[in-house]
């Protein structure tokens, strides 16, 4: 069974009741990523929080001593110790703040690395079929934002610790001065929290909705920036057209964002008006208490400062709690993505691949791509025996590459069975299967690494064996031009990198061939291996293919009939079905599709 995601149009709701679970996850992420920095950073937040209460309590005594000095019941020297104590607490608080910011920066990097690592775990383990799903790519794109927001959640939590400690301690101080202020001040939290979570919800919905269009815009931006597309963009004069589409998508994003921003502004404005009203009411109560003589003047003075300070902090705590709900939405998305990993792992078969290779068979295999309306393969049956060269031919889109991918264990059939020496491969761990297969695709990868690495990647366990790499290069006819490169096998390929150089398409193809030869696998799949080779190189390759790959089995896909005619067996595909099979002579005698295509191609080479 293959894990698929399917389209998800709306973000799942995240409310207050989900917060404890999400906070636990955020803390566990930070704990795993950098527990030392988390402990230190939170500890410093606590110190900074207590500093606020300390300032208020000492401030009250300082103010009292000033008033005593003015009224003559005390002296100015009594003020000095309080002023020094206040300075010391303020300095300590500021030091704790600086240290905390430094630790938080490191923690941020550690959490980012951790989150990126978990996302990579999923993309690396994902079946190839998942890469055919748009929703998979939407999710991967969203993960970039989710990573940052998961980080915000950790920071938000640690900020909340400071706010809660500071506010609680300061509230104790205020309670000592005028307890009646307490319930009033507490009201400040509510509008801030409500507004922040509504703002977050609006933005999160916008972000979710925009992801597919953002991906399209990034794709267009990539076309305008990458070396690969630069030549075609220029030759076809596409820059203006692509740029307009890119800018149009940006315009749409900004228009949508403005709508979200307007909503956010209304909510924020309403919340701030309410916060202001609550603070004003609190200050009026202080004035009233002071005029009635219930609270002494110094205490009233400090209460005013306290209300301003604590009120601000409380509002901040409310905003933080709302921001936490917002970050929680992204964290929830991230967690859902990482939950794909155990699903993918559980769905993956664990059987061991047979040790050798005698025979590979496909029995009545049917396969449909996740996004395709029609099957790409319909009831295909075929056999490849050890030492054989078997060819697949057929018109464009007939299913040759798809069949090769299934035989390489990259996709699993929807129906039918692939057997390797009698073992049903749907029970075998695909990694074990891949170990037995070397495959070069039509659109093979050009690794922007050294020439030696490009070949060595065929068998990572032997990637340091330069002699074996050179031998594979010789077999693929790549040794000559590699040795002429500025640093030979150590030359960086890909001119985008410092010291890098580029190769011709045919030279790249020879390097890809060398990589497949280097793999040393018993079964080799060559999908159009000579498409870019010159006539001499192609002829040499096919003349030598049996000796080169002696004892190995080759599945060859080619549109060049001259190169497949010597195959032991040829399967002709048409619209996902095997319509003919046999050797060249038998197929020509049959006078069917193969004979028609062969004759068409041969006629082009014959004068008249
Ligand atoms: N990733 C994909 N998602 C959806 N459909 C796909 C995908 N890859 C191929 N197809 C479709 O599957 C069918 C078979 O494609 P396949 O690449 O196997 O053909 P082919 O015989 O190798 O063609 P060519 O000779 O052009 O290389 C085609 O109709 C193609 O459009």
UniProtKB/TrEMBL annotation:
GO terms for cellular component: plasma membrane. The chain crosses the membrane at residues 38-59, 79-99, 150-174, 180-196, 265-289. The keyword NADP does not apply. Residues 360-600 form the ABC transporter domain. Keywords: ATP-binding, Cell inner membrane, Cell membrane, Membrane, Nucleotide-binding, Transmembrane, Transmembrane helix, Transport. The keyword Lyase does not apply. Signal peptide: none annotated. Its main location: membrane. It holds the Pfam family ABC_membrane. PANTHER family: ATP-BINDING CASSETTE SUB-FAMILY B, HAEMOLYSIN SECRETION ATP-BINDING PROTEIN. Belongs to the ABC transporter superfamily. Siderophore-Fe(3+) uptake transporter (SIUT) (TC 3.A.1.21) family. This is ABC transporter ATP-binding protein. It comes from Phytohabitans rumicis.
């Amino acid at each position: 069974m293959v894990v698929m995601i399917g389209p998800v149009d709306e973000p799942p709701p995240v409310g207050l009741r989900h917060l404890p679970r999400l906070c636990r996850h955020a803390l566990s992420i930070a704990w795993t990523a950098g527990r030392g920095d988390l402990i230190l950073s939170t500890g410093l937040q606590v110190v900074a929080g207590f500093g606020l209460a300390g300032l208020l309590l000492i401030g009250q005594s300082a103010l009292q001593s000033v008033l005593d000095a003015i009224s003559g019941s005390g002296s100015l020297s009594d003020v000095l110790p309080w002023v020094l104590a206040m300075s010391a607490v303020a300095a300590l608080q500021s030091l704790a703040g600086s240290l905390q910011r430094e630790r938080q920066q490191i923690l941020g990097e550690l959490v980012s690395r951790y989150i990126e690592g978990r996302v990579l775990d999923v993309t690396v383990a994902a079946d190839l079929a998942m890469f055919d799903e748009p929703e998979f790519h939407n999710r991967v794109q969203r993960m970039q934002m989710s990573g940052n927001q998961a980080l915000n959640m950790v920071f938000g939590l640690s900020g909340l610790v400071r706010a809660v400690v500071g506010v609680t301690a300061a509230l104790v101080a205020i309670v000592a001065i005028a307890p009646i202020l307490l319930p009033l001040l507490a009201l400040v939290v509510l509008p801030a929290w409500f507004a922040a979570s509504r703002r977050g919800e609006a933005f999160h919905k916008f972000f979710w909705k925009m992801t597919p269009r953002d991906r399209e815009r990034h794709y267009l931006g990539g076309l305008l920036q990458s070396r690969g597309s630069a030549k075609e963009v220029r030759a076809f004069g596409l820059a203006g057209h692509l740029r307009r589409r890119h800018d149009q998508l940006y315009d749409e994003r900004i228009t949508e964002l403005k709508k979200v921003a307007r909503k956010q502004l209304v909510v924020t404005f309403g919340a701030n008006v309410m916060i202001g009203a609550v603070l004003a009411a609190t200050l009026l109560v202080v004035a009233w208490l002071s005029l009635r003589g219930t609270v002494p003047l110094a205490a009233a003075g400090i209460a005013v400062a306290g209300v301003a300070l604590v009120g601000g902090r409380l509002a901040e705590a409310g905003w933080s709690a709302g921001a936490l709900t917002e970050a929680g939405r992204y964290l929830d998305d991230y967690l859902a993505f990482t939950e794909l990993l155990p699903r993918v792992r559980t769905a993956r078969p664990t059987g061991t691949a047979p040790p050798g290779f005698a025979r590979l068979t496909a029995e009545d295999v049917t396969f449909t791509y996740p996004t395709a309306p029609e099957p790409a393969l319909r009831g295909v049956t075929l056999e490849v025996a050890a030492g054989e060269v078997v060819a697949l031919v057929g018109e464009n889109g007939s299913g040759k590459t798809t069949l090769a991918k299934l035989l390489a264990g990259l996709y699993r059939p929807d129906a039918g069975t692939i057997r390797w020496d009698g073992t049903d491969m749907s029970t075998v761990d695909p990694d074990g299967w891949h170990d037995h297969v070397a495959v070069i695709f039509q659109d093979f990868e050009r690794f922007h690494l050294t020439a030696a690495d490009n070949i060595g990647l065929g068998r990572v366990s032997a990637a340091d064996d330069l002699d074996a790499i050179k031998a594979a290069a010789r077999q693929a006819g790549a040794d000559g031009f590699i040795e002429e490169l500025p640093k030979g096998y150590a030359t960086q390929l890909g001119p985008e990198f410092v010291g890098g150089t580029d190769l011709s398409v045919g030279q790249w193809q020879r390097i890809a061939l060398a990589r497949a030869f280097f793999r040393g696998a018993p079964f080799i799949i060559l999908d159009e291996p000579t498409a870019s080779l010159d006539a001499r190189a192609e002829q040499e390759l096919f003349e030598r293919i049996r000796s080169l790959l002696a004892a190995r089995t080759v599945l060859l896909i080619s549109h060049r009939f001259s190169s497949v005619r010597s195959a032991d067996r040829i399967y002709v595909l048409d619209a996902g079905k095997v319509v003919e099979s046999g050797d060249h002579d038998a197929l020509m005698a049959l006078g069917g599709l193969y004979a028609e295509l062969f004759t068409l191609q041969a006629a082009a080479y014959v004068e008249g």
